[in-house]
Amino acid sequence: MSLIAALALLQAGAAAPAALPELGVNLERFDYPFTVERLRAPVGTEVAQMAFMDVRPAKPNGRVAVLLHGKNFCGAAWEASARMLVARGWRVLVPDQIGFCKSDKPAGTQYTLAGLAANTARLMKARGIDRAVIVGHSMGGMLAARFAIDHPALTERLVMVNPLGLTDRAAEGVPYRPLADLIADERKTDAASIKAYQLANYYHGEWRPAYDRWVRMLAGQFAGAGREAMATAQGKTSEMIFTQPVLYQFGRIKAPTTVIVGTRDTTVFAKRQAPPTLQQFLKPIPAIAPAAVAKIPGARLVRLEGLGHAPQIEAPDRFHEVLLAAIG
Question: Does the pLDDT value for residue 44 go beyond 90?
Fold first, then answer.
């Protein structure tokens, strides 16, 4: 479904959320499901506060899962999966990457996947975690791959869920879009545009009231005084995704790897910055996943039929079944 079609659905009755209150640029007024702590971590030449949840089970099984959020989600969106894992004895570490959600968004920061991975490793070591299963969704899947490549000793297993980074859009001919333009685009973000994009790309035209929480979470950061900081951070991380492909290093991944893909995901990163003559040739995640997964030694691709970009939110029970199988 196109963005135009999604907007038409909204206008026809799937109304966008009403005007949202300001939640704070660091989601100061948005509740997370578990206690939020913070770690000082470097980003570029600056030091920022990295928010995270470290959830411990009553009866530990000795294993740890690190859950990495996507660009349009936060650590809180992993709530159902975290509760499921903790109930089975897992310790679960859920960071908000710097530049996102409850973590700081330093104005002068240049974001890199390697830097975010290094901060995730720093967080693990600060919490006394020597090894973990790394699970990443969307942009977090791309980051999880970068983490597994850069920090193999810390990576017990790797699970990528509808990940970005399975192709190199620049190599496909998509032109670079200047950072100033990306930031200008982000300044236009509101609840209606977020919902329309997610309806079209994540949930294949089928909206549920439960998804509104995640629209409010993202849109509430753009409301009020935090708008410019959010637009800048989101623009810079879009540039990061476009300019720092991980695909060419998939052969270096040593951890047992599973890639989980909802087959109705229509996400095509950077499609809007491609010329119309090229857009029709850019394929969504389910179409490019088989060739990309084949580049990872021993990796397994699991398809979730009928689900979209965020299966852990759309159908958590089905997702958890395949996640548990993947992590052993």
Answer: no
